[in-house]
Write a structure and sequence with these properties.
The chain has 287 residues and is α/β, with parallel strands linked by helices. The chain contains 8 helices and 9 strands. It has one domain: 3-Layer(aba) Sandwich (Rossmann fold). This is Alpha/beta hydrolase.
Length: 287
Amino acid sequence: MPTNAASAAAAVTRTLAVPGATLHFQVAGRGPVLLLSQSGEGDADRTVDLVPHLTDTFTVVTYDRRGLSRSTLDDPAGPVTMAEHADDVARLLAEVTDGPALMAGFSMGAAIGLQAVARHPGLLSTLIAHEPVMPNLLAGADRAEHLAELTAIQDVHAAGGLPAAFPAIARHLGIDPSHDETEDGLTPQPMTPRRQANFGFFIGTEFTAVTTDALDPAGPVRAAARAGTRIIAATGRTTRPTVHTYRCALALAERLGTEPVEFPGGHNGNTAFPRATAQTLKTLLGR
């Protein structure tokens, strides 16, 4: 039976069988349902420092995207599409709530959120789309450049593995882990074998899902207007304006006729500044 609340003391871990995969997800807190959809290789554990600052206000749902960590694919060698990711979001939310939910998506998660708005009108009451990796939001040469950089990272990864791909990812997203500022006391996120496997899946399989996706960028905006869904385009305060995902957020805001909202930090600010990110989410979602 769907519920809008879970214990605030500890996360409840569950699995859900969906077409082509079994999803791992976690539920914690009380209040309106807020789904966090992560960037890059991030799974449900990526937000370990963020979730505790939200559970006093929201029922927070985190999950491993299909193909990452504990969300296993029926066919590990098969493709994954953005439409499948969006449908997974709809099925997860149907498990935990009877009404429209809140969603905060970061990078890949933001692109999935926009897909979910278009494919499942009324599923979300509010979507915060932070620097979506969605080339279709851009026009002309900008779109071509964004597609080319994703393909180039795939090529570098295929030739030299993760050690070769990391510098390219950092360059294209403006991320420098050795110099970027963070809040104090963060949980270490070592490069474990599981995380390495997630990176490989993200680059090798999910980049292809992004570059081959044909979603009309006007689709989510039209669907949101019909269903009464609020979409908030968001950028990182320190993300370089030349970064394509930053420009995707600007393009989304332009389509919405709004100004983008700034979040702490850069492209990965939600993990670098979890306390400040939680406060920003509470302010935006409390309006």
